[in-house]
Amino acid sequence: MKMPKKKEIVKRWSYSRYSMYAKCPAQFHWHYILKKPRDSSHALERGLDIHAKAENFVNGKITGLPKELDNFAREFKALKREFNKKHGYCEPDISVDSKGKKSTKAKSDYFVGFADFFHNPPKDILTVIDYKTGKQYPDHQDQGHAYSTFLLLLNPDHEEIDVEFWYLDSGEVKHFHFTQKDLPRMLKLWERRINKMYADKLFKPTPHKFCNWCAKKKAGKCNG
Q1: Closest CA to 163 of 192, 152, 153
Q2: What is the pLDDT of residue 63?
C-alpha cells in the first residue's frame, strides 16, 4: 500500500480517526492534531461500561451474564464457548503496518484497530463482531469495511469474512460480507480516503447534526 510522499501531518490512522475526519476535518484537527481533550458524556461512559462487561463475560472474568446483554444472551454464551476453544478472541489487535504486515497499536505506522470479537475457526468463514450500545448509523458499514479489509489481508488463507454489528439495546443485527476477491478494491478505497486525510492542510469545518456535541464548538473555537 502506498504512503504519501510528502511530509504528513497525520502519521497513522484508525477507523475512529477517519470517521471523525469524514464528518468534520476541523473537529479531527482539534482532537488529533492539536490534542485537545474530548468531552465525556453519559452515552460514552455507558458504552465503555457495557463493552467492558461484554468482554469480561466472554473471557470468563465474570460468570453471570450482565443484564445489558440480555438481548443477546444465547449469542454471548456461544462466544464464551468459542473463546474457551481458542477459536475466538476478545479485543484482538488488528493493526497493520505500511507494508501490509501484522503490527501492533504501539508499533504500526499505518492502520491501528481493535475488534470487539474475532471468530477465527479452522477452515471456515472469519467473523468479526462489533457491539453497539446506541442507534444504527450508516457509517457502521464503513467501519465493518475497514476491519474486514485488514482482517482479510492478515488472513489470506480464509476466502470470506462476515461482519456483524450487534445492537445491544434493540436486539437487532446487521450483517456485511466480503471476500478475498474484494480485497484489492477495498485496499485502494482506503488508500484514497486516507491519502486525502494525510494531504489536508486546511481542515475546514463541516457542519453536521452532531455539532452541538463537539468540544471545539463548545469552546467557541469553530466558525462552521
Answers
A1: 152
A2: 92
Give the model's confidence band at 6: pLDDT under 50 very low, under 70 low, under 90 confident, else very high: very low
Whole-angstrom distance, CA of residue 117 vs CA of residue 83: 9
pLDDT digits (tens, 9 = 90+) for 156-172: 999 999 999 999 999 99
Which residues are CB-neighbours of 79 under 8 A, at least 6 positions away? 58, 88, 117, 119, 129
Number of neighbouring beta carbons within 10 Å of residue 115? 23
CA distance 69 to 27: 32
Pair 204, 26: CB distance under 8 Å: yes
- List, in order of start, the domains of the chain with CATH numbers: 15-218 (3.90.320)
Q: C-alpha grid cell for residue 78?
A: 456461544
What are the grid coordinates assigned to 193, written together?
A: 480516503
Set of cell numbers at residue 153: 489481508
Give, as one character, the DSSP assignment of residue 111.
Answer: B
Which is more confidently placed, 6 or 25? 25
- How much is the pTM? 0.89
Angle at 72 between CA 67 and CA 75, to 5 degrees: 130
- Round to whole Å and give the CA distance between 11 and 115: 21
Instruction: Compute CA distances 54 → 121, 135, 151, 161, whole Å.
Output: 21, 18, 22, 22
What is the SS3 assignment for 194?
helix
Within a 10 A sphere around the Cβ of 181, how many other Cβ atoms? Answer: 10
Could you tell me the three cell numbers for 28?
A: 479531527
